[in-house]
């Protein structure tokens, strides 16, 4: 029986990078949904206030969810286009996805800290 190999050794670098793009899209998608859940939980419990002045009057309407759906669909279309682009462009798109995921990570940490502080007091 042969030893197991990683995805990267079984496929071309280009195919591996394309797979990475979609994996990071899923991470951003999950982080986006967690942001939505934490925001609505915190708002509903009075732990958070919406700081976006454009979104504040519409927070309990269908607009925030619509904006998120459109943004995620646009991101998916961008990744689908990048999959067929050059290797260098794929690498740039992957770096942008890493940045987006890092920002969402910070936002989620902020949400958790704020909610846990509010629950603890």
Report the major sheet.
none
Tell me what portion of residues adopts beta-strand conformation: under 5%
For the terminal residues, how far apart are their CA atoms?
A: 58 Å
Given as residue ranges, the uncertain stretches (5+ residues, pLDDT < 50) are: none
Compressed to H and E, one letter per element, the order equals: HHHH
- Overall, the morphology is elongated
What report would you give on this structure?
With 121 residues, the chain is an all-alpha fold. The protein has one domain. Helix content is 76%, strand content 0%. It has four helices and no strands. The protein has helices spanning 7-10, 13-45, 63-83, 87-120. The model has no long low-confidence stretch (mean pLDDT 89).
Features:
121 residues; mainly alpha; 4 helices
Short description:
The protein has one domain. It is built from 4 helices and no strands.
What's the topology here?
Elements (H helix, E strand, L loop, with lengths): L6 H4 L2 H33 L17 H21 L3 H34 L1
Helix pairs in contact: 2-3, 2-4
